[in-house]
Amino acid sequence: MNLKTSISSLMKDLFGVILLVFFLFLFFNIERFKEGTFPVSDVMLNVNTIFLGIVIEAVPFILLGVFVSALIQIYVSEDTLQRYLPKNAYMALLPAAVLGAIFPICECAIIPVVRRLIKKGMPLHVGVVFLVAAPILNPVVAASTFYAFRTDLTVLYARMGLAFVLAIIIGAIMYVIFKNKDQLKWTKEELTGRVVLPVETAKKPNRIKQTFYHAADEFFLMGKYLIAGAFIAALFQTLLDRNILLAIGSNEWSSTGVMMAFAFILSLCSEADAFVAASFGNTFTTGSIIAFLVYGPMLDLKNTIMLFAFFRVKFVISFMIVVTAVVFISVLSLQLFVL
């Protein structure tokens, strides 16, 4: 790593730490600020509250994700992946969607897992399926959606069914576009690490220590982008005039787009977003609420920043366009022919 890269990385880390410390300071002194001891605007206090809410909500799942990622790095070999994945590109899409239903991982935590699996040899399009399916299809999200909409399970069935089908469609489209070309951003150290050492010179490391080392390294790497994404999402939530969006959310077309925009900006954890969606029940159509619940876990502001950090720009932009178009068209079709 050259000096310029080192300084850039250090500045990013330092910015993330300063930002977090600043908001924690505001959080622990919030009563003093409200009493007027220190002059802080209501806008800043609201940004602080939303920012810390997003970070505190996401950190446990990020920890889960980086530990799963570390376990994959240490215990799962490239040969194992190649052995169990179907050779046919399209046949591999279905098992990937089914696998997404097993892991209780949200949209933030899934990024390090998918990134690690792709580095281990998982095809890009299979990783995409896992990326969009796991945050919705897992049991925790299903349970929270059930409790939030237990009086009308149409939303639950539509959310889970659409997520499963659309994950496969999105994976297939991304395969057509990229044909499994490498779309990850590799550091110099990672590229060096891809060179396999001769058997006689390779040392057998302590696997438990290596797991914790990789988890810690991944956590701090992901953490700074989570903090940046949470900060931007908090600013949008505070400064955006929601009345404008509510005013154009009265018909099927506009309400679907508005709720998808809400899902992107609010950046809610998929385990909790159903309860927020339920609060919009009297304002927006059922289809638009389904769009909120399907689109948000696949793509939101904070995970978009993380995607740009670890994947190539062309891939991320293509992914955003494909996910947005597929979800929008499918929800409109659902409203026209089913709901």
Question: What features would you describe in this structure?
Answer:
- This protein is mostly helical.
- It has one domain (3-337).
- The chain is 75% helix and 0% strand.
- The chain contains 17 helices and no strands.
- The protein has helices spanning 3-28, 30-35, 42-75, 78-84, 93-100, 110-119, 124-137, 139-148, 154-178, 188-193, 207-239, 242-247, 252-266, 273-278, 286-298, 301-310, 313-337.
- The chain is globular, with a radius of gyration of 21 Å.
- The protein starts with a helix and ends with a helix.
- This is Permease.
- Pfam families: ArsP_1.
- It is a multi-pass membrane protein.
- Keywords: Cell membrane, Membrane, Transmembrane, Transmembrane helix.
- The chain crosses the membrane at residues 12-30, 50-76, 88-114, 126-149, 156-178, 219-240, 252-268, 274-295, 315-338.
Q: What is the element string, with H for helices and E for strands?
A: HHHHHHHHHHHHHHHHH
| Total discrete domains | 1
β-sheet strand percentage = under 5%
Class inferred from helices and paired strands:
mainly alpha
For the secondary structure, the number of strands is 0
What is the percent of helical residues? over 70%
Rg over C-alpha atoms, rounded to the nearest angstrom: 21 Å
Largest sheet: none
Shape: globular
User: What average pLDDT do the residues reach?
Assistant: 77
Keywords:
DUF318, mainly alpha
Write the topology of this structure.
Layout: H1 3-28, H2 30-35, H3 42-75, H4 78-84, H5 93-100, H6 110-119, H7 124-137, H8 139-148, H9 154-178, H10 188-193, H11 207-239, H12 242-247, H13 252-266, H14 273-278, H15 286-298, H16 301-310, H17 313-337
Helix pairs in contact: 1-3, 1-11, 3-6, 3-11, 5-7, 5-9, 6-7, 7-9, 7-15, 9-15, 9-17, 11-16, 13-15, 13-17, 15-17
